[in-house]
Fold this sequence. Notes:
Layout: H1 2-16, E1 22-26, H2 32-40, E2 44-49, H3 52-64, E3 72-76, E4 91-93, H4 95-100, H5 107-113, E5 120-126, H6 127-132, H7 138-147, E6 160-164, E7 168-174, E8 226-228, E9 232-237, E10 240-245, E11 251-256, E12 264-269, E13 275-276, E14 282-286, E15 300-311, E16 330-341, E17 350-359, E18 370-375, E19 378-385, H8 386-390, E20 396-406, E21 409-416, E22 428-429, E23 431-436
Parallel strand pairs: 1-2, 1-4, 2-3, 4-5, 12-14
Antiparallel strand pairs: 5-7, 6-7, 8-9, 9-10, 10-11, 12-23, 13-14, 15-16, 16-21, 16-22, 17-20, 17-23, 18-19, 18-21
Helix pairs in contact: 1-2
Amino acid sequence: MSPIYEAVAEQIVRETEVKRGYCFLLGCGTGRLAFELAKRTELIIYGIEPDRKNVEKARAALDAASLYGTRVTVGLGSLSDLPYSDYFANLIVSDEMLLSGNVLGSAEEIFRILKPCGGIAYLGQSKQASELRRRLEAENLRQWLSKAGITDSSLRSRTGFEVTEENGVWAKIERGPLPGAGSWTHQYANPSNTACSDDQLVKCPLWEREIEGAIRTGMGSECGNLAATDDSLFVAVGEKCLRLDAETGDNRMTYFLPPSPVKHLAINLGAPGDRRDKNGTLWLSYPRPSLPLVLKFDMQTTILPNLGYFQLNPEGVRIEGTDKPWLFSYGCCGLSRCVIPLIAKGKEPGIYTVRLGFAELADVREEQRVFDIKLQDRVVLKDFDIFKEAGAPNKAVIKEFKGMNVKKELLLELVTKAVNPTVTQAPMLNFIEVVRED
């Protein structure tokens, strides 16, 4: 039987991915499945068994393996009235169901002790075991679970079960949030601008951590530094972001701002906020909001008098020739000079590709808005006319310039041909994208 238990333990770990927390064994038998799971995981395992002789054998075998009392505990009792607290088990399995092929115990009781928000019960019989004993019927398993009010997961409930007949017959029950559980993710995340969770169930701290510098004030005028997902809490502190385990508060990851030199920078001039495109590129708005948790970069700009940044409603402007029309709904009219820091002092120089995005949105004619484009004090495009290049208004034009040598900063200049240019004559630019080549 050892190969069967070894294979089943491997399958349980692989299919559930539960390796830490509390495991409950419904019908512990002589402790062989408990032993194999303990070897492969960090689970604390509690088993219950109605047969006194099996309990004694299990305790003796697990004690000899130095597992009893520290990793595994076996109790004598009924499988229908479980002496365990609600919601305690991260994982529920059954040795007895594996061996006998019988649906046993109370599905209601199993569900009662299964942990919300990710608890998994994985019950069934492997093909090898079914060849030695009575075969477990899939329909019996479905009826047993359905009578307990557990929903088939095909109904798209966040809590439900799925029965498969691969390598035997197995039911996988996953439990979602309890009714009344909160869905708060971060401050001001909904139309009510709630600052805390509306959870009706959590009544005491789950864990606590002291994190120096994590307290924030002035939240009404600035922003919060906490964000929650189903399994993590993110805390922004200084120049790093901690990812804490939602169950334990332990550090799962620490994220830092990407160091210099810049490898890829995408700037949407005049945009109201940052936006990620379908390819994964994050387009940063500019000018940047002056808030503590907003990514900052110091870009020096010179804009001609009485001109500046503009915003048009992307829903009201149709831009041809691009799959990202919103990029061309914002921009800067009158930009004459821009200095973008790319490489920190003391770092090696780099070679960059520069892409510039344009669209003629104003009522202009050909040869009216004409300017030179200079990069690093060198003219890279002379007498550029957006309208002439596009052939029509509201049509995207992208110009790419490779091999730009940068020691510290990228210098971009748009040199107008007009004297005292008006809004229809001044240089206009929608976006700047910089990609390091080497």
